[in-house]
Amino acid sequence: MQAFIQLPNTTDRVDLYAALLPQTTALLQGERDPIANMANMTAVLRAAFGWHWVGFYRVVGDELVLGPFQGPVACTRIAFGKGVCGTAWKEKRTIVVEDVDAFPGHIACSSLSRSEIVVPVFNSEGHVAAVLDVDSDQLAEFGPNDAQALEALCELLRPII
Ligand code: SME
Predict the structure, then answer these.
(1) Which of 6, 59, 92, 106 lies in the 20 to 30 Å Cα band around 134?
(2) Is pLDDT of 1 > 70?
């Protein structure tokens, strides 16, 4: 396990993701506890991008339950199909929300959140086992590059979650 992350001296998000993927792979290497690895992934993403909130919700029964996160306190439970997180779980796909006020049923954990991306985390059986939720205090923070890179990072959890 490599217990540190070196960020390149750039604000180019594609370059940052390119540097983060192998380093996060190394960081998770050899650790099979999903919560430990989710915790480190939230720390990596918050350190790299400074987003308002970065965290996981785990599927527990018929709900999502708050998991490791970085940022302000958040709601602890989200029902299947509710909010952006519950919708990403139900539809088994990444959801990018440019303006949270325009997303019907958005769950506002923080009044500072303006845009959001939620990525499902699949287990080895192809079921959604968690979602990664990232909130920004800026409108339209996330796009296809973020979706692709965050999906690749979430894939690292597939064998162990
Ligand atoms: N906005 C999310 C709820 C979780 S918080 O943003 C941390 C949603 O609508 O599912």
Answers:
(1) 6
(2) no
